[in-house]
Amino acid sequence: MEIYKGIPVSPGVVIGRVFVLDEVRQRIPRRTVVAEQARAEVARFDQALESSAAELDSMRVQVELELGAEAAKIFAFHQGMLRDPSLSAPIRARIERELVKAEYAVAEEFRALSDRFAKMGDSSFSTKVDDVWDLERRILRRLVGEQRSRLQGLDQPAVVVAHELTPSEAASFPHGKVVGFATETGGRTSHTGIVAHAMGIPAVAGVARLADHAADGDEIVLDGDRGVVILNPDVERVASYRRYIERMRVFGLSLDELRDSPSVTRDGVKIALHANIEFPREARVAVENGADGVGLYRTEFLWLTSDHEPTEEEQYEQYAEAVRALEGRPLTIRTFDLGADKGLGALATDTEPEQNPFLGLRSIRYCLSNLPMFKRQLRAILRASALGPVRVMFPLITSTTELRHAKMVLRDAMEDLAEEGQPFDRDISVGMMVEAPSAALMATTFAREVSFFSIGTNDLVQYVLAVDRTNEQVANLYTAAHPAVLMLLKEIVRAGRRQGIDVSVCGEMAGEAEYVMLLIGIGLRSLSVSPAAIPRLKRIVRTVEIDQCERLARRVGSFDSERQVLAFLREQVRTIIPEAFDGRAVEEP
Ligand code: PEP
Ligand code: MG
Fold first, then answer.
1. Is the CB of 300 under 6 A from ligand 1?
2. At what angle do helices 513-521 and 546-557 cross, to 10 degrees?
3. Is 191 a catalytic residue?
């Protein structure tokens, strides 16, 4: 039994079997297989060899056509090597002798080969080292690509273990087949974790060296509530986790009863609970869980599951589906928040990777430099606004110039639609995310120019504290409990209130039990969280009084360190509402 500690990024616990998704990276870990699987591994290798040869062949033909026979000769060496049994035979032999996976045998034999070339002294041989590398990557890419397609055809549920997963990889996992995942990289609010939330499966990030030690078929306990991963657990551990899963199921049923009760405090103040969604089908789940509407629809996820820019019509269909599912509740559509860890989806091939993507051409900046694309989205949103209450929201606003520019494009889109005679809501609410320190500091100015604020604490925390939200190495520094973050939150709420606009929090912080009383105490009356978190939040709201929350917030305001804040909040919330922790406080597995 091996126990690993990571960062919990999506709640829930599963016990299952590992499926390792490798990457073509510097070092391929040594992974063994059982004797009966060796033959299948050899077959995988032969298949990868064959398709690499076919790929080289078509590249050679192409280069010969475009650049002539001389240039095409560079492929001759590669092809010669692929056909050379003195390369392939030792790889097959190693798989069968050591009972290892094909990827590992390939990496080891190629390493030995490039060492031999490098030692030959003769410069014509040592320059071949790069070619050897190139060929190795080509074969490994085939093997790893084949893993991904095998994942699509899984016949049993699996827990995916990987060094790293992009949000789009996670979003394309086959539904119902992948029941959880764990990665070596990633932080508390990275978008890959947010995808796990949307899929309703547990996930743990930042688990050092897990992918090196896990093997396909290993038994695994994935504990997304505590951020723990156990490989090959002993029977007692499995039994106690099974009891825990059962207790959680019963706890979930008790929350179901709250579905139709209003979200009001004991002294009768309404706290609106909205949902964060990534896909329109989640709007229904939000309603089923008792949401008052959708406070954040992350439309960029449309790109991540598509191989082209979604057309206006495709977007309209998706937005319309969400509006209909909400049956009159408001839908807050955020314009594309592409870039940074979410990537650029189908646009990625046209762009150079950035040095500092979180400070780069992301989000509203990307949209404002691709106006036709931006306008297509705004048209689709406006058209959907004819079907039910829709609000439009701009992400990562950092200056009034940016906000005014975005609003101007929106007005343009309105004029075009009006000319075409298309129906839309002329009084559509326009809001912005407050997630950059500049926007937070200028909240009073911005409050005069929009009809609502939604505070994106996921980004706000990373920009205020200078801590990358996706980097597991600094995850211990990433916390919304930092007094600097709390001071800004208070200011934003105050500025919004003075101007009489709606202010909400839609970062992950809003769904974490320890922060709810504090957020109410500093004046928030609206929160937006993952659909699954709504019943638990409602339970908390219905247990507390405004006065009590305000007292708690005043006390928190007197602390000068995030540790004090967090320790105090945990202690208070556990005492006042122990059940807020899903019964987790009752008995640890
Ligand atoms: C945020 O930054 O808090 C937020 C809600 O947006 P995202 O997580 O998509 O960046
Ligand atoms: Mg954000």
1. no
2. 90
3. yes
